Inverse folding.
């Protein structure tokens, strides 16, 4: 059970590493505004996310088995404490190493994701501004009291008064 748990952590690390690489590619694609490549990359990203979801389900199941068989394991037990409760020193070291590796790659992936989110937000604002110039309206970067976007019309378009 401990070995299966460690193997799941290692597989999660491999999947997150793949996602991290995708996030790096995504950054370059967002900078280039290559929407076709972004669409393809998004499909790959979705596939990897589903794999992580399955592995997370497995990880939680392994933790439940470990909690039943190991006194002192609870929902509040962190990975450092869990590793200390491992049945042998070798298992302790492998669980701790896999956990630290997973934490590191998850943190790197989140950092890349957050940077990409800023790029996406900036691109969306630029598109909104351009559309507003074309249509003669501006969407303000704030929301109104009803939770809707505030739109200002710069000039009256399509005024058909004869």
């Amino acid at each position: 059970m401990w070995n299966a748990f460690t193997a799941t952590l290692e597989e999660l690390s491999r999947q997150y590493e793949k996602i991290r690489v995708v996030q790096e590619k995504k950054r370059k694609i967002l900078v280039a505004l290559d929407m076709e490549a972004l669409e393809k990359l998004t499909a790959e990203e979705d596939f990897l996310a589903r794999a992580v979801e399955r592995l997370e389900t497995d990880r939680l199941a392994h933790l439940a088995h470990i909690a039943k068989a190991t006194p002192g394991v609870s929902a509040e037990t962190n990975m450092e404490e869990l590793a200390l409760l491992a049945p042998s020193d070798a298992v302790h070291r492998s669980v701790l190493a896999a956990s630290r590796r997973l934490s590191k790659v998850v943190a790197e992936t989140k950092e890349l994701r957050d940077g990409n989110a800023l790029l996406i937000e900036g691109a969306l604002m630029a598109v909104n501004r351009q559309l507003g110039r074309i249509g003669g309206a501006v969407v303000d970067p704030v929301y109104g009291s009803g939770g809707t976007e505030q739109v200002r019309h710069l000039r009256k378009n399509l005024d058909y008064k004869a």
